[in-house]
Amino acid sequence: MDALALSLARLAAGAPLGLRGLVRTLPVQPPSFVLARALDRWFLPRLDEATRTALSGRVVELEVQDLGLRARLLLGARGFEVASSAPALTIRGGAQALWRLVRGHDDADRLFFERALVMEGDTEFGLLLKNTLDARGPLGGPWIPR
Fold this sequence. Notes:
Layout: H1 3-14, H2 17-25, H3 29-42, H4 49-55, E1 60-64, E2 69-76, E3 79-82, E4 89-93, H5 95-103, H6 108-113, E5 117-121, H7 123-136
Parallel strand pairs: 1-4
Antiparallel strand pairs: 1-2, 2-3, 4-5
């Protein structure tokens, strides 16, 4: 386990239930905005036009359960945007499982099979998203340690 994954696990384990409950009541826009900018930088350039079109216009909600964080996004004409409408697909999991997926340490199929990640909603869209993530490989950048 890398240092950041271990730190996330410790943070999540040490967060009192009351704090997680409070975080869950906060607006979804700030974490959504931050995630949208990160995806615009590190993921969007890796998508070809056909894939962008296929993923466009549907809302995805990502819920980091152990931290109480949620982000709701859609892929629009100019990149990832904060979404306010109901999600077509929701992905839930712990911080450590999501981090391991982003870094390519664990296969998405394994994480879903082990129920470390749960997907609800438009399963066809979810499969398209999962296959796109698998084909593009792990995300990287100066803020993501190898």
